[in-house]
Amino acid sequence: MSEIAATTAHEAYAFACMRCGHGWEQAYEIEHHVDGSGNAFVVYKADGERVPSPLSTPTCANCGGHLVRIMRSGRVSTVQQLLQRQNASRPGGPEGERIAASAVTPAGGEARHWQLSDLLHPFHRR
Q1: 78: pLDDT strictly greater than 80
Q2: Engineering a disulfide at 76: which of 23, 98, 109, 116 sits with its beta carbon 3.0 to 4.6 angstroms away?
Q3: How far is CA 105 from CA 22, 79, 84, 114, 121, in A?
Q4: Which is more confidently placed, 89 or 71?
Q5: From CA 25, how far away is CA 117, in angstroms rounded?
Q6: DSSP codes joined into one string, 4-35
Q7: 24 phi and psi, to 5 degrees?
């Protein structure tokens, strides 16, 4: 099978696992080919390695789950930057840690650990 034509596009996607809350982003080189018989096919590469299409069945690298939300690039990094700013703006010292912890402790007294899936809750389809 000889190759006649090839074009390359660059795309990036953001992913969020709805099972464990892990979020990540990945850039891809998408090579569009047409073989000698006129059949089109696509090859995805990430970091120079051939990978399966990220749109078919993405897998969470953290928990192995397949319930993964695919979004436009930048969504995960934006949330991560907001969380980092929030953590950096907390008052210092043990007293500040206690105050910051009480701010995220619900009335029942059990500490709440926020994950990316919590932040993406408004995007869930009903």
Answers
A1: no
A2: 23
A3: 22, 21, 19, 11, 19
A4: 71
A5: 15
A6: EEEEEEEEEEEEEETTT--EEEEEEEEEEEEE
A7: -155, 165
What is the token pair recorded at 39? 């059949």
**Span 9-65, pLDDT tens digits:** 888 888 989 999 888 889 999 999 998 888 999 999 999 999 999 888 899 989 999
H and E: helices and strands count for the chain:
3, 5
Report field, pTM of the whole predicted structure over 0.85: no
d(CA 48, CA 29) in angstroms, rounded, equals 8
Domain extent for 54: 3-123
- Tokens representing residue 41 in the block: 């096919």
Distance CA 34, CA 40 (A): 4
In the block, tokens 């047409």 appear at 34
Q: Is 69 left (phi over 0), alpha (psi -120 to 50) or beta?
A: beta
Question: DSSP string spanning 45-83?
Answer: EETTEEE--TTT----TTT----EEEEETTHHHHHHHHH
Domain count, the chain: 1
